Amino acid sequence: MVQKQIKGLNLQEITRICEMNNFPPFRAKQLYHWMYRHGINETNEMNNIPKEMSELLSQEYQFKTLQVEEIQSSEKENTKKILFKTHDNRLIESVSMIDKNLHTICISSQVGCSVDCQFCATGEMGFMRSLSCGEIIDQFIEITKIREEPITNVVYMGMGEPFLNYNEVIKSAEILHDPHGMNLGRNRITISTSGILPKIKQFIEEKQPYKLAISLNAADDETRTRIMPINKKWNIEMLMRELEKYPVDKKNKIMLEYVLLKGVNDTKSDAEILASYGNKLRCKINVIPFNDIGNKFARPDDATINRFIETLYENQIHYQTLVRWSKGNDIDAACGQLSAKNND
Questions:
Q1: Does 173 share its domain with 263?
Q2: Catalytic residue status for 93
Q3: Annotated catalytic residue: which of 106, 113, 283, 335?
Q4: Structural domain boundaries, residue 161
Q5: CA 157, CA 168: separation in Å to the nearest integer?
Q6: Which of 14, 167, 281, 293 is deepest in the core (most CB within 10 A)?
Q7: Are residues 266 and 156 in the same domain?
Q8: Could you confirm whether 168 is annotated as catalytic?
Q9: Per-residue model confidence as pLDDT tens digits over 42-77
């Protein structure tokens, strides 16, 4: 018998399974709690589930979607990179970063990526397939078994373009946010996109409660098209026009992500134009000095980085400037470095 995947189903879907098999609806909530709140994959460990239901579920359904293949630990900070294998032997990576009382995990939404950002190692893999909601959720669950510290924040900034797997990503975020699931606050969940305009529009129209991050990385279309070919389809002006519709919320501001590349997008003029976008959108600007992936790009020198940041501060009226000095560089776990390679 080919087992069906149950991990990733929401409470309504699990309730339907119970009803189809003549189990009372309250059993669905019990099962949901075991799967998501407690991360249990063996039905015989679910001690309030009756034997008949336990046996049926274990025969017909697959609970675990990922296998931990390798864990790398940074020697510089409290960061781990986890390599997972899927049931069809694909490899994906997640990152766990602990800093004081924050435990942030960076999770993947696809195996590889089709967007082909020139400065990102994942893009060099090509695209294999999108992950199921269960595979996305299992990254969270497996990391809770590796780390003692509870997860406080989730960012969809790992492998893949989340908005090209929109339905499964949103469904997984709903389970993470659900009080009966992982019970993470909406402001603790951030979904990043390179600029898939129809899905940005859908995200805004649906009034999704999660934080939205836009991987901008250039101040003008010529530069952005060169490093992010998707800009040919949806350029900066189109993005800004749509993002202006996003409701301004002090606790839930849009974040413009900007990877600084030496000699590409790091001038004072670039910073001034970026500042104008920030003031218009009343957002956060997150500057990310480039992390080496062994290609033609390089990180600007410290003087250039500091000048860029100072220019942002000088022009800051309605936005907030942040600088992300990425964690896990020594294990290729930093922003843009994930490529699912096994070191064995």
A1: yes
A2: yes
A3: 335
A4: 66-331
A5: 15
A6: 281
A7: yes
A8: no
A9: 999 999 999 999 999 999 999 999 999 999 999 989
